Each structure stands twice: as structure tokens, then as C-alpha cells.
């Protein structure tokens, strides 16, 4: 049995130039759509949205509908795809707790510990769970205190937590 890989024809130079001509309109539309996003996330959303717009444009060209592509429409659909947690070139993994797709689907909120240490008691956030027994909560608190007390300073915090949990 022979497996053949179907390749999509590459975009010609004319179509690439057409996308580059639409790019300022795409950027304006995306910038307006993400204006209320957190400042640190805007650059990432802009880049992801432009990548989605290009992929959508490439699909239209491959279907022979490249002349029907409009920058505003491509940008709006690209922003919607980014907001839904989709990535270009990757799959939506519902089992990856750090992916936006899984967090939205399961109602998970991931908080960085760095922001919580300013308040003082980040341990309370780590063990807060309605399904844990008091014994589980006490064991988690003891283990975390032991982890932070007996680690050297030259390893990163994320690596120590990963090694401890694994």
C-alpha cells in the first residue's frame, strides 16, 4: 500500500502580492478588534490573527476564489479563530491545561504564582479545591513548604515545581 501526501499548490507571486496589499487593512481591522485585550497579549494576538488571515486567504486561492477575498472579512474571521483558542499549525488539545482552548472548555483558570506572592499567601490558591479532603490539603501544604524551603536558587521555579510534581 502506498501512501501519497496531497500537497496544496503554492501561492503564486501575484497572490502573495495581493495579500501584502491587503495587509494594512487586515492590521487595522485586527488592531480595532483587539483594542480591549491586555496590552501584553496584543502583539501575540496580532501575529496569530495575521497568520490565520493568511491561511484563510491561501485556502480561498486554492479553491479558486482568491478574487473574492477581502481584508476586513479575513481579519474578522482570523480574530474569531484566535479568540476561540485555535492556533495555526497546531491542534486544539483539550488535555493541555495551559491551552486557551482547554481552559475555556473546562472552565480552568491558570494563575501565575509570581502575581500571588505579592499578597503573601499563594499557598491558599494552590490547594483551594472543593474535591480535596482536609488530609489532602494538609499534605499539599506541607509538601509545598518543603519544596520551597529545600531548593537551591540556581534552578528556576517552574523546573522545581515540574520536577516535584513529576
Structural notes for this entry:
With 166 residues, the protein is mostly helical. Helix content is 61%, strand content 0%. The protein has two domains: 13-106; 113-165, no CATH class. It contains eight helices and no strands. Helix 1 (13-33) packs antiparallel against helix 2, helix 1 (13-33) packs across helix 3 and helix 2 crosses helix 3. The longest helix is centred in the N-terminal third of the chain and has 24 residues, at 39-62.
Topology record:
Layout: H1 13-33, H2 39-62, H3 71-83, H4 100-106, H5 113-117, H6 122-127, H7 134-149, H8 157-165
Helix pairs in contact: 1-2, 1-3, 2-3
Quick description:
The protein has 166 residues and is mainly α. The chain has eight helices and no strands.
Q: What attributes does this structure have?
A:
single chain; 166 residues; mainly alpha; 2 domains; 0% strand; disordered C terminus
Please count the helical segments: 8
Mean pLDDT comes to 76
Number of strands: 0
Proportion in helices: 55-70%
The number of domains = 2
Distance between the termini: 41 Å
Major beta sheet summary: none
Q: Briefly note the structural class of the backbone.
A: mainly alpha
Note the overall shape.
Answer: elongated
Radius of gyration: 23 Å
Task: State the order of secondary-structure elements, H for helix, E for strand.
Answer: HHHHHHHH
Unreliable spans: 1-8, 158-166
Strand content: under 5%
Amino acid at each position: 500500500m502506498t501512501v501519497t501526501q496531497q500537497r496544496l499548490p503554492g501561492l503564486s507571486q501575484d497572490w502573495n502580492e495581493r495579500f501584502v496589499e491587503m495587509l494594512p487593512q487586515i492590521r487595522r481591522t485586527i488592531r480595532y478588534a483587539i483594542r480591549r485585550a491586555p496590552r501584553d497579549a496584543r502583539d501575540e494576538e496580532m501575529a496569530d490573527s495575521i497568520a490565520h488571515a493568511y491561511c484563510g486567504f491561501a485556502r480561498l486561492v486554492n479553491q479558486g476564489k482568491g478574487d473574492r477575498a477581502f481584508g476586513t472579512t479575513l481579519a474578522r474571521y482570523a480574530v474569531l479563530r484566535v479568540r476561540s483558542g485555535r492556533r495555526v499549525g497546531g491542534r486544539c488539545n483539550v488535555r493541555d491545561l495551559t491551552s486557551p482552548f482547554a481552559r475555556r472548555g473546562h472552565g480552568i483558570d491558570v494563575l501565575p504564582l509570581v502575581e500571588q506572592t505579592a499578597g503573601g499567601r499563594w499557598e491558599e490558591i494552590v490547594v483551594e479545591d472543593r474535591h480535596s479532603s482536609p488530609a489532602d490539603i494538609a499534605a499539599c501544604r506541607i509538601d509545598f513548604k518543603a519544596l520551597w524551603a529545600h531548593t537551591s536558587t540556581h534552578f528556576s521555579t517552574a523546573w522545581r515545581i515540574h520536577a516535584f510534581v513529576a
